[in-house]
Specification:
There is one protein chain. The chain is α+β, with helices and mostly antiparallel strands. It folds into two domains: 17-52; 58-136, Alpha-Beta Plaits, CATH 3.30.70. Helix content is 37%, strand content 25%. The chain has four helices and four strands; from the N terminus they run H-H-E-H-E-E-H-E. A four-stranded antiparallel sheet has the order 2-3-1-4.
Length: 153
């Protein structure tokens, strides 16, 4: 999101005064240089949500989990679940939190239906307290190539 598009298109919109004031407050709180940047971010978010409505859409994103870390049982169950989604789980980061909790963030990519099923399967692990999938329409470049034709593995 830090790069500017090569061409810009102008859009003029009318908003209720209260909504405009709330938008200006959000722009100021986030330290953004313009309303346009904030509106573009909001549109990108909504486009990603809209793409997620199409089950065949391939998306990249993160799955964030909070779980009880009192034993290795939960971590083992989460790892076992992730093994069924090797093509979708790109990487995982785990950190221990206060009060015997842990947070795991998975970098994922794949068809929305598979990502949603992964979330559902992780949610079933006893000890998982919170889980959230956040997606984007931007994709990771192919990670591995093999063969003479240069096609992704």
């Amino acid at each position: 999101m830090d790069t500017l598009p090569s061409t810009l298109a102008r859009l003029s919109i009318s908003l209720p005064a209260e909504l405009m004031a709330q938008l200006d407050a959000m722009v100021a709180e986030r330290g953004l240089p313009s309303r346009s940047q904030m509106i573009a971010e909001l549109i990108r978010h909504e486009l990603a949500e809209h793409s997620a409505e199409r089950p065949e859409a391939v998306l990249a994103g993160t799955i964030t989990l909070i779980y009880r870390a009192e034993s290795g049982r939960v971590r083992h169950a989460l790892a076992q679940t992730q093994l069924g989604y090797v093509k979708e789980v790109i990487s995982a980061q785990n950190v221990f939190l206060e009060d015997d909790q842990a947070m795991e963030v998975l970098l994922v990519q794949g068809p929305f239906e598979r990502l949603q099923q992964l979330c559902d399967d992780l949610r079933k692990v006893r000890g998982v307290q919170q889980i959230k999938l956040v997606t984007t329409t931007a994709l990771l470049p192919p990670l591995h190539f093999h063969g003479e034709d240069g096609e992704p593995a």
